[in-house]
Amino acid sequence: MPDGRLTVVGTGLITPQHITQEAKRHIELADRVYHLVPDPLGISFLRSLNSNLVYLGDCYQKTDNRAKTYSMMAQRILQGVREELNVVAVFYGHPGVFVSPSHQAIKQARKEGYDATMLPGVSAESCLYADLDIDPGKLGAQNYEATYFLCHKININLSAPLTLWQLGVVGDLSFSTKIKPSATGLYLLKQKLMKHYPDTFEVILYETAIIPAFAPRIKRKPLEDIQLDDINEVTTLYLPEYIAAQKDDYFCTELETKTNQGEKSCQIN
What we know:
Layout: E1 5-10, H1 21-29, E2 32-36, H2 40-49, E3 53-55, H3 66-82, E4 86-91, H4 100-111, E5 115-118, H5 124-131, H6 136-139, E6 142-145, H7 146-151, E7 162-165, H8 183-193, E8 202-207, E9 217-222, E10 236-239, H9 249-258
Parallel strand pairs: 1-4, 1-5, 2-3, 2-4, 6-7
Antiparallel strand pairs: 7-10, 8-9, 8-10
InterPro entries: 4pyrrol_Mease, 4pyrrol_Methylase_sf, 4pyrrole_Mease_sub1
Keywords: Methyltransferase, Transferase
Organism: Pleionea mediterranea
C-alpha cells in the first residue's frame, strides 16, 4: 500500500464548538490540510491546529458548474495523497452529508490503493433534532434532497416526519455555482406536497445556527403560504407527522403469543 493517506473530517456547524477531539487530532498531525470552511473564525481555528492549510473555496471561481467544481476539489485533495503525504480534508458540517468532493476523493484514493477514511461530524440533521426537540426513534424519519423529492415518485409515510433539504435550490437543474431559489421549483414542490397534506398544514422552515450564541431560525407557517422570500440556500423544510400510524394487530398478537409463553411484550399504543 502506498504511503499517502487521506482522512476526511467535518467541523460541524459551529467551529470550534462542534468539532470532535478525533477530528482535531487528525488535523494536528496532518502534513497538509485541505479545507472548505466558510467562516473566518473556523479558518483561524484550523490555522491554530495546523499552519499547512490549502483552501478549496477558490475552485468555485474557476467554473460555474458545481459538479465540475467538486471534481476539482477532489483532484486537488488527491494531489497531496499522491505526494505520499498524510492529508486531512476538512469540510463544513458532516463531511459525508451533501459533500460530493469528500466521497469522490475517498473513492479514488482507495481505487489507487491509498488508505482513506471518513470520520463522523455534527450535521445539520443532528442540529435539527436538537433544536426542534425531535426523537427520530419515536416516529421514524424521512429525509430527501428537495429536488430529488420533487422529481421522483416517493411513497410518503404521513405517519412520520418528512425533512426536505436544500430547499434553496429546489428545481434548479443547472447545477450552477450561483445558488438561488427557483420560483418554479418552489411552486411545484408545494403543489406536490399539497396532494398529501392540507394546504393549511403547519410546517417549519429551519436554519441551524452557525455562529456561537446565535439562535437557529425556526419559522412556522402554513404550507400554502411559503414564499421565495422565506427561503435561502441553507433553508430546510420540515413537515411533522400528519396522521397516526396504525397498529399492526396481527404481528403484535403473534409477538405477544410467541414471546416468553405469551408474556405481553408489545406495548404499542
